[in-house]
């Protein structure tokens, strides 16, 4: 049963499991104690810190372990902002950061700070120049992910780090998605990571703060982890995390080549096999194991369930999945189609220990079942056939209004597609919708269909989206 | 090699280990995902929450898991204070709370709140009346531990909870030390615990907030754990924590009887075997597995090392251990001797799985080696013989000044003891000392020796402690 959601969490690496077992016996005591059990725990913690620091390319005394990547981000951002309070209160982030970063930014704003979001291009990448332009004299901290968690696009971290350096602004890099593949290139000031993304156990994040970076930990004092992470150290998990980081790095070069070929195959084949699909994210500057695409006229949650029933575990940034009513902020920032969104992230194999990662056969089978599943979902939703937009209806009227109020994605887009042939070329269709996804998906549909998106008007309820038929 | 520091951390319970192993395979995925791995993880998390809630005696939806007991306390306190911001800004705590509580209180004070510390008696317990008297109309939150972590004294939680209820003030109970032994008696509003204290793994704390208690989580938003604990859920460890809590509870009644007998033996025998020892903490209302005593004229760190070399792992609240220069705040609040302090906390055995806990033989051997080790340390520090205070020196002068500036405990007290015989009955000895422990230990010495502690005067450096010879 292929698991294609490694970017959410990866199964425990065999090396992590071995290290965890061993250190459950050796590393359970309080490392602050002077007795032999405490000293033994301290030795394990020190060794893990050295191994992790080597992988991150920092000094051991610059790195602390936190209970999660999320907490590493929260602590790193709040500590760096407080450390540079005198410089200013501005925080610069990209618009496609992980929600942990954006939530920390929102908390900072609520506490009276200011936040500047740097937009991204259609591939999800910031422009170094645009980023640099936002670094003023009052910026306390800048944040940029090493690579995007939803679409796999790598960010120009080295260039942005240079710009930050020139402006005297510390840069925090959220490296959660990329640490398995290698250290972060460029002169970052703070760096965060999360062990369960690289085959380590849950319960371990890491935060590196370069010497010389002003840093003032917030919250109640706690002497552990240099005062930067409160609570009893989770040494067995930390040891396992460090061991698995080292192990995945040893396998990274080979696995990257192998998975990149599989991802390229998906990127190339899906649009050939499935009509009306948009593959998103940078085709070249990307993580080796992540590929994301969106399917027009498809409900993301239904497609996920169908894939799950067929044995494939994927995730989705569609608004129609899980509890949220709004599409992923990443897809919104990129301005790409969000409906029927599927993220495929392939787990690595750990060659030395015989765990099978993603195989060619898994990917082949995925490509085999996907077209039928998408077609089935579209049929169920009454989606128009791919060619319907150019058909001319017998009853032509200059403009039409489609009331899709109260209908969730992908219905508003489907309704639009059904009637576009009912207006003449040059005529307009106005879609009334109160579904947040429509704001993203109607313009995206226009792009895919060669129709003109005129714009959005206010309406009594929801919004009115105006589309002009061009062909 | 007997490990007598269970109150710091207990070795992993065999049941916890089994549960951890099993859930490493089943519980590594993201429980927010809709695919089968995510659903399986969610089921494990839900089951663990139910088991833990049952042990804590609350509803499952009142309980969240945190990455540590410390974070449960920090989150519980900050959330409850924020939830009752309109009522007032006063936080009431006992003076012998765990440092996690006192650090959260200090952070609250630094942020403009006010903190009232309720003192304790010589056994380390608060008086319910004294506690109740501090609950005014502007108190947002009260905190009281179920039992003290350093001396084992149980607090009158039920009575204090009643007083809090009458005053309309929510009570947060830090139950870290007692949850292994049973649920907390009384109508608490919030409760915190820490798995590694009950034989669970590190990396798991719990926070229960009763329905109806106003609670506003602080810090960046995060949808997991009811918005009360940020970061990826550590499900394997949570499952192990819940399983071991259930397991230790099943064994608690028998183990309590067994360990209480061993502790009573230590409490009775140590003062018989070792001269000039003060056993501290309530003799009856106490945790079954903790006993603490202090040895006059002894350096805590040296004694710890000697015990460690003899195979016994204990901890100490002496100032002369670890990096701190001040004695434990618990011993200070109790007003008892802090030098040569030793806490013995006995691990439970897990009968069903054959792990050996503390045996009678371990305790016997401890009682066998302790007197010689204490005598050795005293000799090394040049401590006076037990009877020296009543000897009369040939050169009698009405008052003497002993300069112990720059000397660390136990030297100031040893110097005092050496010269008390050099003044006549009614005469005084003034000890100049800049060691924080002297403030506690000189009055304690007077109590043990039947001499009068006159008081403390300011001095150019440190303080001057005046003692009058009475016998």
List the main descriptive attributes of the protein structure presented here.
471 residues; alpha/beta; Aspartate Aminotransferase, domain 1; Translation Initiation Factor IF3; 3 domains; 7-stranded mixed beta sheet; 4-stranded mixed beta sheet; globular
Brief digest:
Chains A, B: Belongs to the class-V pyridoxal-phosphate-dependent aminotransferase family. NifS/IscS subfamily. Chain A is an alpha/beta fold and 471 residues long.
Describe it for me?
Two copies of one chain form a homodimer. Chain A is α/β, with parallel strands linked by helices and 471 residues long. In chain A, strand 4, helix 6 and strand 5 form a beta-alpha-beta unit. The two termini of chain A are 44 Å apart. Chains A, B: Its cofactor is pyridoxal 5'-phosphate. Chains A, B: It catalyses: (sulfur carrier)-H + L-cysteine = (sulfur carrier)-SH + L-alanine. Chains A, B: It comes from Streptomyces xantholiticus.
């Amino acid at each position: 049963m292929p698991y294609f959601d490694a970017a959410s969490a990866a199964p425990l690496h065999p090396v992590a499991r071995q290290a965890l077992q061993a250190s459950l016996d050796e590393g359970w005591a309080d490392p602050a104690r002077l007795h032999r059990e405490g000293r033994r725990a301290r030795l394990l913690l020190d060794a893990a810190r050295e191994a992790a620091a080597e992988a991150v390319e920092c000094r051991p005394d610059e790195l602390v372990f936190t209970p999660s990547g999320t907490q590493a981000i929260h602590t790193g951002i709040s500590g760096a902002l407080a450390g540079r309070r005198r410089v200013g209160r501005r925080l610069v982030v990209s618009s496609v950061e992980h929600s942990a970063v954006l939530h920390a930014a929102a908390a900072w704003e609520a506490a009276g700070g200011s936040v500047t979001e740097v937009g991204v291009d259609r591939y999800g990448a910031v422009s170094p120049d645009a980023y640099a332009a936002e670094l003023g004299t009052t910026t306390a901290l800048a944040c940029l992910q090493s690579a995007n968690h939803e679409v796999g696009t790598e960010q120009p971290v080295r260039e942005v780090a240079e710009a930050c350096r020139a402006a005297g602004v510390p840069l925090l890099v959220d490296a959660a998605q990329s640490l398995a593949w290698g250290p972060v290139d460029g002169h970052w000031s703070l760096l965060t990571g999360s062990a369960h993304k690289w085959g380590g156990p849950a319960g371990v994040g890491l935060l590196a703060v370069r010497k010389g970076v002003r840093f003032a930990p917030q919250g109640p004092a706690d002497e552990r982890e240099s005062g930067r992470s409160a609570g009893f150290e989770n040494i067995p998990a930390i040891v396992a995390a460090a061991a698995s980081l080292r192990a995945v790095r040893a396998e990274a070069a080979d696995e990257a080549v192998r998975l990149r070929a599989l991802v390229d195959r998906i990127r190339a084949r899906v649009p050939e096999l499935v009509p009306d699909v948009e593959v998103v994210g940078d085709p070249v500057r990307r993580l080796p194991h992540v590929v994301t695409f969106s399917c027009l006229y498809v409900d993301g949650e239904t497609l996920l369930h169908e894939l799950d029933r067929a044995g494939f575990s994927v995730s989705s940034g569609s608004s129609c999945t899980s509890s949220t009513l709004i599409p992923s902020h990443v897809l919104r920032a990129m301005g790409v189609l969000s409906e029927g969104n599927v993220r495929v992230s392939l787990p690595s194999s750990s060659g030395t220990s015989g765990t099978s990662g993603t195989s060619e056969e898994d990917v082949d089978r995925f490509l085999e079942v996907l077209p039928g599943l998408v077609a089935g979902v579209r049929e169920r939703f009454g989606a128009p056939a791919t060619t319907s937009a150019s058909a001319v209806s017998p009853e032509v009227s200059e403009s039409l209004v489609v009331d899709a109020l109260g209908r969730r994605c992908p219905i508003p887009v489907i309704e639009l597609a059904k009637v576009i042939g009912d207006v003449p070329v040059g005529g307009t269709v106005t879609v009334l919708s109160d579904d947040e996804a429509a704001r993203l998906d109607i313009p995206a549909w226009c792009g895919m269909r060669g129709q003109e998106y005129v714009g959005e008007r206010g309406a009594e309820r929801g919004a009115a989206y105006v589309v002009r038929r061009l062909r």
